[in-house]
Each structure stands twice: as C-alpha cells, then as structure tokens.
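Q: Give me a backbone?
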Amino acid sequence: MWREEYPKTVRLRDGRQVTLRPMVREDEFRLLEFFRRLPPCDRQCLKDDVTSAAVIHSWAENLNYDRVIPILAEYEGRLVGDATLHRTSYGWSRHVGEIRLVTDPDFRQQRLGRALAREIFYVAQVLGLEKVVAMMMEDQIGAIRVFSALGFEREAVLKNHVLDLEGRHHNLIVMSQDVAGFWKRLEDKIADTVADQSGIES
C-alpha cells in the first residue's frame, strides 16, 4: 500500500529537512495548532472553520483514507504543511481527485508546497486516478504559481463564487492536471537534466 512508503524526508530550498507522512489520529492537537497559526487571509480560503477544535476532532476521529488522504509536513515536532486528496468511490467523478493545500507562512518560498503537491500526485497515480483539480481565489497568486509550475492549467473562472470572512466576493479559479501527463513531463525533465549534466545530446 502507498502508506508503507512513509515517512519521507524532503530538503527545502534553505536546507531545512521536512518529513512528509499521512495524518494519524494523534495529530489532532498539533493540526489545530497549525491552522490557528495561519493568518486570517489564508483561513478564509478553506472550506471549513479550521480554528474550531470540534472540526479538527471530527477529522481525526473519522479518518478515512478511502475518501480523504491527508499528507502532513512536519519540522522539529510541529506541523508546517497540510495537503489533502479528496475523492469519491462512486459516480461520474470517481476518476478525479481534488487537491487542497496549505503551508505555514514561515515555510513559503521554500518549495514545500511543490513537494506536498508532488506527493499528492504520487498517491493519485497509485490509486489510479486520471485527473487532479485544485481550486483557489483569483488573487491567491502564490498558490496559482505553485500549481502552474506543476503544469496545472486553468479550466474555469467562477465569478464571485467566494465570499470571504469580511463579506467580500472573489472569483474562484479551477485548475487541473492530467496525472499521467504530469509524471511524463517530470520524467522528461529528469532525463533532460541528466543528459545536460552528462554531455549526452538528445
């Protein structure tokens, strides 16, 4: 199973090493602490009130990897990132997964978001999903850059679809990526890098 391959360690741009692993029930209080550290502008983009102890308790008590797979990033005993893959086992979208991703402000611009997104792609591939989508507000420039760098393309813009904590409307961007296509592009990039370093001409 995919869970047997964790934990994994990734090195960030600044040299810090972060551990990636699936969420377990014992993460409840540290996950709540992580979400409460987020600035309001980040929390308003999420679909649940993640500052509520009852909400996080419900997540921990009802962990079901068949529906939602949470991959956490941990650094020196505290959680600094959370990426989830949401899927359904029945219906016309059973081949599609949705990514939701958030990182600690102190760990941004360090490619932690990319590392978490890649892990979600890996799990999606193992599970046989064909497509992954991500949704964000149009003014979440950092998130758009992360997913664009991973080859996501805009599929739709939903006008005034988001109502923030202060009652303001925002456009919602829907971006998507083909799972098989993602890994093919990644393999090609690795092959090109190896060729460049070895002096082999393609």
